[in-house]
Records
---
Amino acid sequence: MKKSLIALACASAFAGSANAQSLTTYGIVDMGFVSESGPASIQKLTSGAQSGTRLGFKGTEDLGNNMKALFVLETGIAADAGGFNQSAGFARQSFVGLQSDSGTLTLGRQYTPFFLALNAVADPFASGLAGNAQNLIPSSGIRMNNAVKYASPTFSGVSGEVAYGFGENTAGNDRASKNVGGSIGYTDGTLNVRLAYHKANGTTALTSDLSDTSTILAANYKFEVAKVFAAYSDNNVEISGRGKSRDLLIGVSVPFGNHTFIASYINKNGRSTANLDADQLGLGYTYALSKRTNLYAAWASIDNKNGAPYTVGNNSDVGTGDRAVNLGVRHTF
Amino acid sequence: MKKSLIALACASAFAGSANAQSLTTYGIVDMGFVSESGPASIQKLTSGAQSGTRLGFKGTEDLGNNMKALFVLETGIAADAGGFNQSAGFARQSFVGLQSDSGTLTLGRQYTPFFLALNAVADPFASGLAGNAQNLIPSSGIRMNNAVKYASPTFSGVSGEVAYGFGENTAGNDRASKNVGGSIGYTDGTLNVRLAYHKANGTTALTSDLSDTSTILAANYKFEVAKVFAAYSDNNVEISGRGKSRDLLIGVSVPFGNHTFIASYINKNGRSTANLDADQLGLGYTYALSKRTNLYAAWASIDNKNGAPYTVGNNSDVGTGDRAVNLGVRHTF
Amino acid sequence: MKKSLIALACASAFAGSANAQSLTTYGIVDMGFVSESGPASIQKLTSGAQSGTRLGFKGTEDLGNNMKALFVLETGIAADAGGFNQSAGFARQSFVGLQSDSGTLTLGRQYTPFFLALNAVADPFASGLAGNAQNLIPSSGIRMNNAVKYASPTFSGVSGEVAYGFGENTAGNDRASKNVGGSIGYTDGTLNVRLAYHKANGTTALTSDLSDTSTILAANYKFEVAKVFAAYSDNNVEISGRGKSRDLLIGVSVPFGNHTFIASYINKNGRSTANLDADQLGLGYTYALSKRTNLYAAWASIDNKNGAPYTVGNNSDVGTGDRAVNLGVRHTF
């Protein structure tokens, strides 16, 4: 059993040593009550409604000459019933990389540039709770397997990243499961703008010539009393046959002491023959018990048109109905 | 690689900081030789005969105002052949909670109040080794999924807990997999008494109207030279159709320096038509190499009557025969 | 979140305490580009081409009287796509043991003495990269389930180990999955010689009377400018029917500052009716960015004769073609 307070235990004593290496054990445990209603109705206790429950190990090593080695090994955990999320252990993130003044090169299973733009710039709900923007905006790939990613350094607030995911199909089919994406962004601490693209090919020989593509232009701006969000995305979901759509998001996040109020509205304009349109309104509230622990409450409702099939989910659950309430606690360690 | 001695490294240096947070990595590795005989016979090396091999991460955060956040993420490991126990990773315990002067509220996968009474109050073998009381006493649920548990603070030695596990069945069937349980106990450090109940519904649509229920009254008393145990349980195992039974347990645990001698006798009185009666005698011995490491030896035998099907298992194995010998080593970290 | 520099944080403060216990979190993340060609051709990003990506927890406890308890729990991770290697979580190594002046006794899932000889004494590629000796030399068992292993102390440079793996088959078949092995070796720091044997029975009732056996005599010698390797093995692969063979390996490893050049040649002489012969030439290069992080490049080619089916793999991949190139980065923590 190893127990230590959360702090750099006597760190300064080793600060001068060459090839200093750090290892951090971290995670989130998030459990909440979720009530979904609409066509189907269910009351349940869900792991990760706001942020996926996870356990991670990450580290860096100073290689000298302004170079660093770094790694992340992070597993999702279904704290409600045991087991792993993302269909396998350590399938949240697993990569190794090198960082220098010229940028960061990482290899392994990683987030797509598109998802990072949706999550960090576009969505006031940060892909969590009932208002999760992914309920309507297709993320065409949250993570990429077998991926090489290059992230540039930041020049005058501008930075970008490109990522390529090998398909690794043996039967002469090198298109299946292939992923490619990139983003370019600007931030000055107050304004945050990002343009991102992702294309994911089908995973089987039959669907390898089909792909899901999404392009998003997202921005947020930090006023004194609130942060406002806006995003516009253009999507083509070929693999499931759902077709083309355009999404418009506006949102706001209002901090007030330990309280934060969140709201977003998304309009999906289906552009396939079936014209599957939908609107989502999401409202959220978090109360910080500390910097690391918060309570949360959220409500969202989707108005499906022309038989559109969208459901209100949360970070870990695609949902079953067109309305949902969340109520829970999230602890970060 | 991070290496640190097992101690609070420089803890005092941070004791005064607000929102102090602790993270503990802990576990048990237990491997032993198990020989089972009776109708079927096998010699094998088993992981977790005394205590399930496990790796856990737990922590607390001081939230001020006498409140704490806490979490546990604990996985079982099959150290004999690799893989996870409890059918999935991190399925031993996974929960998050808040603790205050008013009690502790936890959400996630957790032990049932019934099992905790059987394990900690009734059974001198603590659910481990050949003499494991669960060989005969049906625990109708060791752990509960999707569970909310409230544990009261202790008033004059009296405390209790109640737990409810959501069924989470989508097809309008909210009875399947539902669990409910509770316990109330008293301890003064010498006497330890607990009354516990658990009811677990069947997990499928077909069995959701059936349930396994168990009620146990358990006590132990710490004399100067020995701790004596007694328990009485009343069970109705509907799901498998094994039916009603009553179990009586008496046991003793005798510490002697680094040696501990354990014995228990259980009488099961089957009350279904088939009248499946059985008696179990279990003998155990542990030798402490340190506070954290011990050797163990155990023997148990079940006398089945009227074709009763009970087998001698251990903590991690239901067993195949009506007699078993265990011999192994357990290390706690 | 617990973060600490890689060093014994304030260790000396506790050095005097009784039953001192250590816990180490460690691992490797290795990702590389692999191009395989020959009958089948593929370009991919692979986890663990040089050394399997892993996360481990290990510790020791001082029991006094020159005795120690020790354990290892180590999982393989597929960092390219998430999930576990070795077909299950914590299936790299999971064992507990006791160590004294009389040797070390360990119980659990462990490396075979044969594999340790192949890996540590015979193969300049240490079972990694394209030149991996296992491409041709059948290791008849890298790890053993349900295993008891005794490793002797070292007397004048001589030490040995014996291991037995219980089959654990219930249906009266105690031969299936049984493993037995051993090794004896000598080292004076410059010369390293080891003789090892392993026999693994088939895992099913149908194949339990068949076995794969391998005997290897391996040696390496550390000259001032290079380490040279030689090994001879005699194998009988009954279970897959590939039959008898003899393998001869010669190799060299040349360190030069941060650079290391590796080469090996293996001749397999098939001795079954089909006479499945093959030769492998492997070339490798590693560049140390630090003691813990290196880049790697490797190439190997197999010349199969008489329709022999051997492929060029690496540490984590059996390969699909008879030529392969590896290019990657390995970080150890």
---
Amino acid sequence: MTELILALDFGGTKHTAGLIGRGETEFRARRQVISPANADGDYDLRTMLGLGHELLGGAQPAAVGVSFGGPVDYDTGTVKLSHHIPGWENRPLRQIITAEFGAPTNVDNDANVAAVGEHRFGAGRGCASLLYITVSTGVGGGWILNNRSWRGRDSMAGEFGHIMVDPLGPLCVCGSHGCVERLASGPYIGRRAREWLAVQPERGAILRRLVDDDLNAVDGKVVAEAAAQGDELAWESLAVSARALGQAIGSVANLINPERFVLGGGVTKSGERYWDLLRATARAAAMPEVSYEVVPAGLGDYAPLWGAVAIADEPPA
Amino acid sequence: MTELILALDFGGTKHTAGLIGRGETEFRARRQVISPANADGDYDLRTMLGLGHELLGGAQPAAVGVSFGGPVDYDTGTVKLSHHIPGWENRPLRQIITAEFGAPTNVDNDANVAAVGEHRFGAGRGCASLLYITVSTGVGGGWILNNRSWRGRDSMAGEFGHIMVDPLGPLCVCGSHGCVERLASGPYIGRRAREWLAVQPERGAILRRLVDDDLNAVDGKVVAEAAAQGDELAWESLAVSARALGQAIGSVANLINPERFVLGGGVTKSGERYWDLLRATARAAAMPEVSYEVVPAGLGDYAPLWGAVAIADEPPA
């Protein structure tokens, strides 16, 4: 009988569980729950354990892989905290899951897990080294080097979003200035456009129409839509994002020389013009002798769930 | 009888050879030759083979390690070119050395080899991951990850000098803008000071005195000396260098989270104020959760030679 692997993805706004047979290429079943606004660590955990038991229907998993949307100490499997949900501080998540399902468990943060997912099942297949980058509400990243996750001294490696691309750039939540995330993420694409709309009343007609003149409704997604329809103000805000990503990718290509950059997250769905500018900026910043590919992620929102399947099988740290 | 290891360091301006017994901590003998201005690949090779035979005195080495001052394809041991000396293009250096001395040979570029040297014998001992950075005529770097060299897809990893730290910065030899090297290396510390001296006649009195008012004599070293004596114009040029290095180190700490940064090269001998600014800038750019150390290199100019001893023993690629 095929052994069962349980994959759990604790997200900031939703939780997903999947059940798959070892070696299989499709989930046998998947369940997702959207978190209520007042969710906390206890709620998240109770919900996810419920989903797992529901999928297993009394069966015993051979291994469990867990993706968590926040910093994790991989060696101990302990969650440090969630930046979105209260009550997650220092929870020994691996220990809790192992006890609950009676199976060996690995836990890592979502960016690392998604990188493993893309490497094993998605746009990074056949690649010994890659940086997975996700650009949505924030900008995160995860490394595969020598076909394995690279986590670094404090399990903090992969913070691509906090490469400084402009020393005179705006203050970032991390305390630094001009970070990739501060320039490239969806919320800041929206914020920049709102600020420009407020002081340039003659511009952004298409964008204004799309939100019925309600500037508070301007977010990264509608900016991308307006840019696609030819709004130049909208495009300029997107372009800042594409250039920040491209500049950092070119620098990272020089520094680490990985085979591939795999880009996922909502912002990377901003169209061909966005990708062209991102790629051209990266190529200009990378040295001529340095080669690499920049490709869209293959697994979409399910990269962490697929990665959870892959890390379930890793030897314990 | 102790097996002999021959270490060869092909530099841009001088060649060094060393002979050591396996496991020993001091060279039995070392020889160095300064290259004439008209040296080429043939000259370099002939000189170095001569030094090797002189040191060996007819004995047979068990292994040879070679550091080369330019890009090398590690897998084949072929030199791609020298940026300083003509006639090095595509020389199969490993093959040549193996044939000459009848011993297994490994060849890598000087920054990677110096990183291995510092890791095994210098300021990186006991550290599983580090970036070695050398700041002198250029800015180079070499990675140790998981106690091994990380070379990347094209053997190009470690080009720390070509991280872009200022998108509006000056044009770099690599074709990009505002690279670390363009802001931090010795020649550009000198050039910046010269440019400022030319347009700020009332400033830089100490620096002017040190070069007897001959602005062409202003280089990175004399700028550091003037700054140490209290010249504020000189200090400002040094500060641009320290800030560029610090900013990039902070970003790399976030991206890779290595245990240590080991800094060598003449520019890093610019005094405590330089190091303080570099460290403070790095700390401000790194996320609070990311820890690392920034330390001076321990082996000075002999890092590549010690690294050559270490790579002599590596298994063939």
